[in-house]
């Protein structure tokens, strides 16, 4: 009999500051490490955004 969590996918999450002039470069770097973008929200100042990312735990 399998345990209740077998086959269950788990994720880890990261919050990343994004500078408006370098957004693509920053997201590409995280994407190369297996992170998937979940959402982008306004940051603490007009020149910054905050990205929420996730990836499956191995």
What does this structure look like?
It contains 1 helix and 3 strands. The chain is α+β, with helices and mostly antiparallel strands and 58 residues long. The chain has one domain (11-56). It has a 3-stranded antiparallel sheet, covered by helices on one side.
Write the layout of secondary structure elements.
Layout: E1 11-19, H1 23-32, E2 36-42, E3 48-56
Antiparallel strand pairs: 1-3, 2-3
Q: Return Rg in Å.
A: 15 Å
Q: How far from one another are the termini?
A: 23 Å
List unreliable stretches of 5+ residues. Answer: none
Number of domains: 1
Helix/sheet category: alpha+beta
Number of strands: 3
Q: What fraction of the residues are assigned to beta strands by DSSP?
A: 35-45%
Protein name: DUF4177 domain-containing protein
Protein traits:
alpha+beta; three-stranded antiparallel beta sheet; 3 strands; elongated; 58 residues
Summarize the structure.
The protein contains one helix and three strands. It is an alpha+beta fold.
């Amino acid at each position: 009999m399998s345990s209740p969590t077998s086959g269950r996918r788990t994720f880890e999450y990261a919050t990343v500051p994004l500078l408006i002039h370098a957004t693509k470069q920053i997201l590409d770097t995280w994407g190369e490490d297996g992170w998937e973008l979940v959402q982008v929200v306004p940051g603490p100042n007009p020149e910054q955004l905050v990205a929420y990312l996730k990836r499956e735990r191995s």
